[in-house]
Amino acid sequence: MFRVSRTLLRIVAVALAVLVASGGASMASTAHANTSTSTPKHGGNITVTTEAGTPVALDPLQNGVGGDPTTMIYGGLVEPGLNGTIGWDLATSYKVADKNLVGELAIRPGVKFTDGTTLNASAVVWNWRTDLLPANACTCLSNFTDISSVSIGGPDLVDIHFTQPYGSFIDALNACDCALDWIASPTAYASEGATKFGQAPVGAGPFEVSAFVPSESLTVVRNPHYWDSPQPYLNSITYKLIGNDQSNLSAVQSGSSQIGEWVSSPANLRSVKGLGLNLDPIAPTGDFWFDIDAFAPPFNNLQAREALQYGADYPALLKGIFLGLYPSLEDLSTPADLYYEKTVPGYRTYNPTAAEAIVKSLGGLTFAIETGPSPADIQVADEFQQNYEAEGMTVTVNVATQGFAELSAAISGHHYGIVTNFGGNFYSPPIGWTTWTSCASELSSFCDPEVTTLESGALSAVRASVRAADIKELNEYAIVKEAYIQPFAVNTSYDVASKNMMDVTEAGVPQVLWQTVWEK
Amino acid sequence: LSDSTTIASPGSRQETSLLPGRVVSRIYRSTIVRLIVVRLLQTIPVLFGVTFILFTLLNVLPGGTAAQILGTSVTPALLKALTIKLGLNHPFIIRYFHWLRLAALHGNLGTSLLNGVPVATSIGQRLPVSAEIGFVAFVEAMVLAVPVAILAARRPRGVLDRMNLIISMFGISCPVFVLALIASLVFAVHLHWLPAIGYIPLSGGLWANLRTILLPASSIAFGLFAAFSRILRADLIDQMNGQDYVITARSVGLADWAILIRYAFRNAVFNLITVAALYIGTIIAGTVLVEQIFGIPGMGTLLIEAISYRDEPTVLGIVSILACIVVVANLLADLLYAALDPRIRHGNSRV
What we know:
The structure holds two protein chains of two kinds. By secondary structure, chain A is α+β, with helices and mostly antiparallel strands. Chain A is built from 16 helices and 20 strands. In chain A, 32% of the residues lie in helices and 21% in strands. Mean pLDDT of chain A is 84; it is low at 1-34. Chain B is mostly helical. Chain B has helices spanning 2-7, 13-16, 20-29, 31-60, 64-70, 76-85, 92-106, 119-154, 159-173, 176-190, 206-242, 244-251, 256-278, 280-294, 299-308, 312-340, 342-345. Chain B is globular. The interface between A and B is large, with 59 and 56 residues.
């Protein structure tokens, strides 16, 4: 029996040694640079694996649309540029008129949809009128409620009429990953109908659809008549859904895919270069923060909110959980946003003594932390809990297993003390902030007329300097003076791993620009 | 009646001499036909129960379809508009019976709430992919398990038996997704023998197709092989050690190999058939997991997406199909039992 066991052990040991040796050899390979000064070249049929999910339909108005596939097919009127600035694409300029109640958007002349029809002001107006119909329930409606109508101002000019001055309109369009930015061919839409168009759409982007399996894969081929010739460089891209970071990285390592998108866990992000792949960073535009329920005890008391802000050790948390990949943050915008402030005067840093003293003076502090279901969310909440309990607070952690829907139900029903939250698309503040801060929003954890006034001022301001001043004041008021909300980290929500691909991302730009990507 | 005329083929003198009505009556009295009818009738309450419970659960979950679709863009007005647009403003019981009426009376599984595509079309595209992976996994497991179990049972506690024990314990205790990730790292990333992701249909060539399903199918098959081989081995040893017919066979000079393969295997296989049928659910669950890991366009990814968005018609359609597959698999197991066991075939045993 012993002889048999030894033989077996030897076989197992040899097998393990072979495995380790082959793994070690691969791990030792070096990373390549992903940007160069060489001239891009045409060609290449690549596969992109993504963890973000592939769309269920490609009609801008249908549900579950968004992200890279839509940009490949439609391009955009404007695309996020460097650090929140506007990258003109199918539109070329914007100005306001008539006491800031009319916006004039110029459309790039001579652009054709892939069905050969013209993308002009008429096509944009047809798209926008459809998108803005309330019955169509477009997700784009939330940031464009001030639009009363749209009309054709000229062959390539769209007039946007506002109910009140909306100086942030073009920034909102820039930030919007939504139907208003994606222009579909009205001719193709009319002839195909909504459902068929959703499976075989026609746009004017750098690529056109070749094959589409909803929720699974999308193959696009180069649009030979793309307006920004010689782009795009790739002949085709097959965009495929993959379940997790590990499978994603394995696919790129083995050559089954060339780009792995949405690699998100800090541990896997750190391992990318060691696997012989490029790590192409996406400029992050999201934050981690926590909402404090100021509507009800105990946090309707400013002191209790201050105790929370003093009580969490953010530097340790950022180092421990996010492995140093998520930079600290004091305001609600990120370095890739307009109006970003590295420091907010008076921002409360970790001060356990101050937190403890406040808790003592209040006679204790008992509350619940609601958090999302991802491992990072839970770790953050657990870390907060330990910090707070060490300072004499009594804390429970509730994990919203159903994700955002459950969290939002908790927030709107005020069944929480604080919520660890994260969000994106905050480039060009304060667009999007009102969801979390306005008295009119069910998801706001407080209602303060001063905050509403500052936000309205910033949103309507046409001059950037006025808006910047309003936003600065807003940050200091909501985060420091009243301690309603506490941003603490940039949400480096995802990056891209690639092999032999060039110009996948650009510093300060929050997305992959597929028309510029080329194969080495 | 059409069935009866088909069964009473011209080659069967005894059957053709009977009147059609008597043929039907005789067939009905047959144990096997009764078994099939009973099993198919049992499918009705099973499908009703499964779909109703699932529909209720989908509606009890916080969030709801419209909220899931809107995500962080949710506002009360938008939520209301989308709820009406999707027809979700009606009470859930009315929506369920509307779906049930369409499905049961017209065979129409409805359209997806997310993209308006008929659910039957989506399932039709993806079911063959998942079925192929499940089938290959099952065949792989059986083809390996039977000879290994026979070899292990031939010399209990021998080298082969002990190796099988170690491998099987690993197979039983290792989750499918872990195995799939390891397999991907070893055979795709390090050795470059097989692709890490993707699926090529049979129309793209047999070898190309096999290359894409070998890793996912084997990841599922390994656990099945482990369970099947251990069960069959134990039954074979039980037969060989204690049964009178084995002693008789040995006394007339038959070799142990011959007894094992010709007689003991036939008697030991019943347990394996039962277990194999029960493992259909495991195969389906495994398929859902490996499709995620290997990026395969099967039912699993469709189901996960549909659940996360609470796409009721798609979830109900897929689950109905899966429930039917489980029922049919169990029916096939019963029929195989009947084919192997004369007592059942001739109606001497309750089914």
